[in-house]
Amino acid sequence: MAKITPFPLIEISGAPRQRGRIYGETARERIRLSAGLYTDQLHRLGFDDANIERLVTAFLPRIRDWAPDLVTEMEGIAEGAGVDLSAIVLVNARTEVLQLARLEAGVADEEPDGCTGAVLLPEVTRDGTVIHGQNWDWRAECADTSIVLRILREDGPDILTFTEAGGLARSGFNAAGITITANYLESDRDYRDMGIPLPFIRRRALEAQHFALALRVVAITPKSGSNNMMLSTAEGYAVDLECAPDEAFPIYPQNGMIVHANHWQSAIALSKLKETGLASVPDSLYRDHRVQKVLAETGGKLTADDLKRAFFDDFAAPFCVCRAPMAKEGGNLSATVAMILCEPAKGIMEVAPLPAINREFTRYDLTMEKGALARAAGACPDRTEEESRWSASS
User: Fold this and answer.
1) Pairing, β 247-251 against β 9-13
2) Is the pLDDT reported for residue 41 higher than 90?
3) Most exposed: 157, 228, 338, 365, by fewest CB within 10 Å?
4) 135, 5, 38, 92: CA torsion to nearest 10
5) Closest CA to 352 of 342, 344, 341
6) Considering the chain, what is the average pLDDT of its residues?
7) How far from the centroid of its chain's Cα atoms is residue 14's Cα?
8) What local confidence, expressed as pLDDT, does residue 54 receive?
9) For 298-341, what is each residue's pLDDT tens digit?
10) What is d(CA 140, CA 182) in angstroms, rounded to the nearest whole number?
11) Residue 137 and residue 158: Cα distance in Å, rounded?
12) Strands 247-251, 237-244: parallel, antiparallel or unpaired by DSSP?
């Protein structure tokens, strides 16, 4: 492992191709490492370059029909980074491509893209604002291939997102106060049909000006595999959507919060599909409850530090909420790659790389729309005049 350093901030602006080129040029080294990570993994599964190209480009026509502007942006990223477009598509469709490759090769998925996520609503937080975050469990090497991306857009709210280099979006929030995080799920409906890869859906949700429109993107867009996506608005509400490829099942806040790991919670979902992921992530059955337990032990209104403490939980290590790098079968390193906390009413995201062995957070900021700040303040009538002034000026 290289020395643990903060994730670099990349700021892009302009039309899709222009901002893509800026992105590619600025993050060139990490983008090449990111694409190489998955190319090497596909090589180990027995796929040569021609077959990798076949798997990757199969998604392009569907993506182009659904989001031509995002394909143009990826073309700009490829130009700026000096790589083929297929390398950028691979980074953005790596979950789907790897799963399809494993199905072709007859190999089980033994390192799912885990995560434990949570959102705290204003009624349970000390300053009366939304706190939304997650631990992202995946390849430890991604501590060296991920970035924070600030997207200054001409046609909608600006975006601040943590993502793998070359990726369009992963976890983050927009200037309208909408936040999204995502967790691995698996069901018996997965990979029967080709859908839209998940980063494109997350990016479209973050481009939404209104919470309802972000929910709509996540709920109705066809997917290749299952996934859990948690969305919140700085106005003071959240909905978790457990998504099968062709259907979404909502989970609503209880006691002012939602906590989700990597198993299905919706009773309606479980009556209609079969959970197939627990063989890979049995620890999911206690990780969400551990986060809830640590938060409950606070005994009062909650802060971002309280959520960090819950995400640092090491009960039942190494299979815990916050996991240190550990070798998996095949030689891959698995870890909690990043801890990400978003406070959109304050316009800030805090991120710590490899938090099980590094507790240094870097703060990234986004200028919020005045309307979003006003709505967030209106959702918290118990805040003092001084707190409201601070939020509006931050």
Assistant:
1) unpaired
2) yes
3) 365
4) 60
5) 341
6) 93
7) 24
8) 95
9) 999 999 999 999 999 999 999 999 999 998 765 567 899 999 99
10) 18
11) 27
12) antiparallel
For 32-53, what is the mean pLDDT? Answer: 96
**Interval 344-354: pLDDT, tens:** 999 999 999 99
- pLDDT score of 110 more than 80: no
- According to the model, what pLDDT value does residue 384 have? 43
Amino acid at 343: E
Q: How far is CA 187 from CA 62, 191, 253, 276, in A?
A: 23, 10, 23, 5
CA 184 to CA 112: how far, in whole Å? 7
* Tokens read off for 143: 């501590």
Side-chain half-sphere exposure of 252, counting CA atoms within 13 A: 0
Q: Which one-letter DSSP state was computed for residue 345?
A: G
> For the segment 267-289, what is each residue's pLDDT rounded down to a tens digit?
999 999 999 999 999 999 999 99
Range from 1-5, 38-42, 269-273, 384-388 carrying the lowest mean pLDDT = 384-388
Which residue type does 294 have? V
d(CA 178, CA 232): 6
Rounded alpha-carbon distances, angstroms, from residue 70 to 10, 62, 257: 17, 12, 33
Band of the pLDDT at 388, cuts 50, 70, 90? very low
Structure tokens at 128: 């009366």
**Mean pLDDT, range 242-262, rounded to an integer:** 98
Question: Which residues 6+ apart lie within 8 Å of 66 measured at CB?
Answer: 196, 200, 221
Exposed, middle or buried by CB within 10 Å (0-12, 13-18, 19+), for 368? buried
Specify whether the backbone of 118 is left (phi greater than 0), alpha (psi in -120 to 50) or beta.
beta
Q: Is the dihedral of CA 186, 191, 196, 200 positive or negative?
A: positive
Its pTM surpasses 0.85: yes
Q: CB count, 10 Å around CB of 296?
A: 12
Continuous H helices in the chain: 16-26, 28-44, 49-57, 60-66, 68-81, 85-92, 94-105, 198-206, 211-220, 267-272, 284-296, 304-311, 370-378, 385-393
Token representation of residue 209: 């000006």
- Gap between the Cα atoms of 279 and 198, Å rounded: 22
